[in-house]
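Batch manifest, entry 17 of 40.
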Amino acid sequence: MADEVIERPRLSSEELMRRLEDEANAIQAPMCWTQLAQEELSVRDLNERIKDADGVITCWTNIPDEVILANSQLRYLGFWTNIVDHRVSLELANKRGIMVTYIPDYGTDSVAEMTIAGMLAVSRHLVSTVQDTKRGTWAYELLKTGQRVPSIDAIPQKMLKGKNLAILGFGEIGQRVAELALAFKMNVSYHSRSRKQAWEEKGVQYLEIDDLFRRADIFSVHLSPYAPARIVSRERLAMLKDGAIIINTSAGRLVDQEALWGHLRSRRIHAYIDVYENLPPRKIIGELLQLNNVFTYRAAWFTQEAVTYKGERLLENLREFIASRDRRDG
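Output type: structure tokens
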């Protein structure tokens, strides 16, 4: 589709590992590959790399106004990610005749499915059950043989059916989670900037945000990363009922993380967490994993299907740009 493709020069794996080690030593914390990918480039470096380019494909690199103004030949910016408002000025790009595309929906089904998986894992005490099985301990066998007959309240595992699921943020992912939850016969409520009448007709209840916290047996965060930082505040976490489960597959900055760790340590609530304010705090996670919590790191979206769709959609966006250019020039 292009006469010429110019790639950013690749660092060797040895150089990347050296830089990771240097950064980790400098900040006294572990580094991950994604942090290097998000490295900010100077305007000078960006201009040098994209000079004479009609189009640019990127993922996490910000394209500042100075770069757009300095490259009058630029006609296309293709982002291999789902949100771009903080990466480039869409208003300026439009004024300069630059088409900007991105891929807003690549993770919808993957994240929604993983959200349900997290609910099931915590509700059914999956981590400890796997560990018990590995040790050769089966609670059900003890019950059957009469060695230990627990009361109903002493059985920790619970079903999703009939539980109150509260969804904070009701965009595409939140709505897909609601659809799956209804199939499990859960009672679903939501809070969003706008009411969703069609969903309310299906029995999904709209609640004000604090009421959403108070009602939840399971509370799932599906807000835009642009939502206010720590909207799931210390005070709101305290509103959750004892034994509630909180799930965050959205953005780490939305939850008061230190307050959350405190609630999890006390076993008052439990959690499935896939995103963090920074890198996953491995020592804390190791401690809390033993208390019926589940932790992953940006795994919710990462499936064969989502990655395949993301690549195919990028190519489709490029084709649409070329077709629109040909129509304009023709």
